[in-house]
Amino acid sequence: MKQFQFKRVGILAGMAAFILCVFIWGALNWQRTSRTVIQIPDYQGSDYQNAQREEEPQQTASGKAVDIDQLTEDLLNDIEYDTELEEMEESVATGMLELQKKSEITLYMGDGTCSDQILIVTSDSEQAAEKDQKAVEQYLMEMKKSFEDYIPEQAAKIEDAVIIRCGCYVTACVTEQAEDAKEIIVKAFK
C-alpha cells in the first residue's frame, strides 16, 4: 500500500515539475513581437472630452474628423485578405479582449483557419486608449501562440500586424499587405 502511495506522489511531483517547467519556459519566451506599433499625437484642445460625444467625431492632430466606418470600409475594400472578413457582434468582440469599461470595439475576422482581421477600438480617453492598446497587443500575442502550433504561416502574419494608436483610437490590422494597411490607417488619422 505504501509503494502505491509513493508511486502516486512521484507521479504528481513529476506532473508538477513539468507544469512548472512549461510555465518558466513561457515566461522566458514572453517577448514583444516585431509588429509595427505607431503612436500618432492626438488633438490636445480644452474641448477634448467634448469630442467624445457620439454626434461629434473625435479629432486627430490635424483637427480632421475621423470616420471609423470609412476607415473600416477602406481596409475591407483596399486590402486583400486570405479569407472573407465578417463583422463580429460587439458582445463577442468585447469578450475576446479585456478593454476599458467604456471602450467600444469593431472587429472583423475570417474563419478559424486564417488570422486576418481588422480591429478598431474607440476609447473614452487617451489614457484608456493606452491601456486598450496593451490589451490589443496581448490579444494578438495570444492569437499568435495559438496559430503557431497548427498554422505557423498565420502566426507569422500576426507577428507583422500593424497596430496604430491615435488619441482615443487603437487600430490593428492583420494581413499580408501590412504596409498598405498601415498607409490607409495613418492617412485616416492625419
Describe the structure.
With 190 residues, this protein is an alpha+beta fold. Helices cover 48% and strands 16% of the residues. It contains six helices and six strands. It has helices spanning 2-29, 68-78, 90-96, 126-150, 152-159, 178-189; strands at residues 36-40, 86-87, 104-109, 117-122, 162-166, 169-174. A six-stranded mixed beta sheet has the order 1-5-6-4-3-2, with helices on both faces.
Q: How would you describe this structure in keywords?
A:
six-stranded mixed beta sheet, 190 residues, 16% strand, single chain, alpha+beta
Identify the strand order in the major beta sheet: 1-5-6-4-3-2
Q: Outline the biggest β-sheet.
A: 6 strands, mixed
How many individual helices?
Answer: 6
Low-confidence stretches: 30-36, 42-64
Quantity of strands, as a count = 6
Q: Approximately how much beta-strand content do the residues carry? A: 15-25%
Q: Average pLDDT value?
A: 78
Content-based structural category:
alpha+beta
| Multimeric organization | single chain
**What coarse outline follows from CA principal-axis ratios?**
elongated
* Distance, first to last CA: 75 Å
Relative helix content: 40-55%
Order of helices and strands: HEHEHEEHHEEH
Radius of gyration: 21 Å
